[in-house]
Amino acid sequence: MNPPVSDMPEHGSPEWHEWRRQGVGASEAGAACGVSEWKSRLQLWQEKIGEAAPIPDSPAMKWGRRHEAYIVEDMAEILCCEVDEYPGLTRKPSGVLYATPDAVLLMPDGSRELLECKSTTWRTELGEDDSDGIPFSWLVQTQMQMLCCGVDVCRVGVLVDGRNLRRFTIIRSESLIQSLLLRISPFWQYVQTRQMPPPDWGNVLDVEWIKANTRPRLGTSEDWSDNAEFRRLVEERDQVKASIKVDELHLEELNARILHAMNGVQSVRCGERELVYEQRHRKAFSVKASSHWVLTEKKVKTC
């Protein structure tokens, strides 16, 4: 197993944040590759060049860390092994990649395996216990952890809804690691040159980042009538807007047909969904208070 970083700054200190900015952590690898569900590649790039502070932890992330100790204890008991490191120490063998596993386990045969702890809800799609059926962004994280730490197995303990512990086993995959490195390397080149990576327009997080971070130069005006590519984008948007209008009319028709079929019943369950016809109220702030009825839909948890 690779040795830990000997001069690691204190966790949470300004020096620690600056140290992290000089590389890509295993938990950031998904964002660097453009496969994260929570952070866009552009947001990570902005953080790495020092133009944005890291996104603060959400309440869910804070509670997840508080659950870690219990997950580590239970996983060690389930696997009949000892906890060699908790919390895990940071490893950065070479290059820009580094990893801080949640824990390191000492197995009965004397080998060491990593342990990654997650907390989530029933909405997260998970496979069977002892399989590798975890979200792809988690899989990316565990592969980068194994690369940096020099081990071949990473266990993942997932606490679901705060009461159900699921367990998964991830085996090191050299082919997946190499494909991920091929995406992380150009990302880091963009960081070093401070050149913004090209947006992935199929990634909703990149689209939202562009909308949130693009600002006009006030008072500027230009005529781009002869710009063929810009005209194509505008014309494509017009076509989408027209199709959306048609889809909205179709949606209203379907809503009306559903309400007619419900025949006065306020709540109807349909498989894993529940359709509810409810009254919404709008408070009086800058506009007049009002209320209206709307058909809503929510997922229903099935046992």
Q: Could you walk me through the main structural features you see in this protein, from its secondary elements to its overall organization?
A:
The protein is an alpha+beta fold. It is built from 8 helices and 10 strands. The strands form 3 sheets. A 5-stranded mixed β-sheet has the order 2-4-5-6-7. A hairpin with a 7-residue loop joins strand 9 (273-282) and strand 10 (290-299). Helix 3 packs across helix 6 (174-193). The longest helix is centred in the C-terminal third of the chain and has 35 residues, at 228-262. It is globular and about 65 Å long. The two termini are 42 Å apart. The mean pLDDT is 88.
Topology of helices and strands:
Layout: H1 14-21, E1 24-25, H2 29-33, H3 41-48, H4 59-79, E2 82-85, E3 97-98, E4 103-106, E5 112-120, H5 136-149, E6 153-160, E7 164-171, H6 174-193, H7 204-213, H8 228-262, E8 267-270, E9 273-282, E10 290-299
Parallel strand pairs: 1-3, 5-6
Antiparallel strand pairs: 2-4, 4-5, 6-7, 8-9, 9-10
Helix pairs in contact: 3-6
